[in-house]
Write a structure and sequence with these properties.
heterodimer, A: 0% helix, B: mainly beta
Chain lengths: 108, 114
């Protein structure tokens, strides 16, 4: 089942923060986060494993709550380069699912 | 550059035809994943191979098949093509089998079925 992401789209001014949520109806083993710019391949941001792990990558961090079957991506002090579509990717059993996507636009 | 290569970059063909998409994983990666991305369906997992063996199967149509060769490159075969098969096809590779590590995506093959 495809995870649901919220919001679907968000517009930020440079320097503002954003949170993108990913929610699954099935138990999760791991959650991946990717950013995809138009016409390009998804680029890996980070992976979180079971255990409530939280990771950070520069000004981007994420959390994973396996009990709630949810993950959140936090972008702080956004930059123009953060614009793109963000996908969560999840593994449930032997299947891989990508979320519905969140379009993020950062404007000057 | 992720280190994953895909050929061709673009493919235009007619309905009913058959095409083969090729993927070479990053050096040292044993897992290859295939994904389809279309406007209305988002990113869909098709199939995974690990060291030559099929490991996981997603929403792959019976008209589609894939294999991974001894040199670890993979091919995705699409037959009896329909208009709805037009999409971006990505392959990704990772080191391990269980999907708990990073997947590096290739640049994709854009398939247009006319």
């Amino acid at each position: 089942q495809q995870p649901v992401q919220s919001p679907q789209a968000v517009i930020l001014r440079e320097g503002e923060d954003a949170v993108i949520n990913c929610s699954s109806s099935k138990a999760l083993y791991s959650v991946h986060w990717y950013r995809q710019k138009h016409g390009e391949a998804p680029v890996f941001l980070m992976i979180l494993l079971k255990g409530g792990e939280q990771k950070g990558h520069e000004k981007i961090s994420a959390s994973f709550n396996e009990k709630k079957q949810q993950s959140s991506l936090y972008l702080t002090a956004s930059q123009l380069s953060y614009s793109g579509t963000y996908f969560c990717g999840t593994r449930t059993g032997n299947q891989f699912y990508f979320g519905t996507g969140t379009s993020l636009t950062v404007i000057p | 550059d992720s280190g994953v290569t895909q050929t061709p970059k673009h493919l235009i063909t007619a309905t009913g035809q058959r095409v083969t998409l090729r993927c070479s994983p990053r050096s040292g990666d044993l897992s290859v994943y295939w994904y389809q991305q279309s406007l209305d369906q988002g990113l869909q997992f098709l199939i995974q191979y690990y060291n030559g063996e099929e490991r996981a199967k997603g929403n792959i149509l019976e008209r589609f098949s894939a294999q991974q060769f001894p040199d670890l490159h993979s091919e995705l075969n699409l037959s009896s093509l329909e208009l709805g098969d037009s999409a971006l096809y990505f392959c990704a590779s990772s080191t391990r089998d269980r999907g708990a590590d990073t997947q590096y995506f290739g640049p994709g093959t854009r398939l247009t079925v006319l």
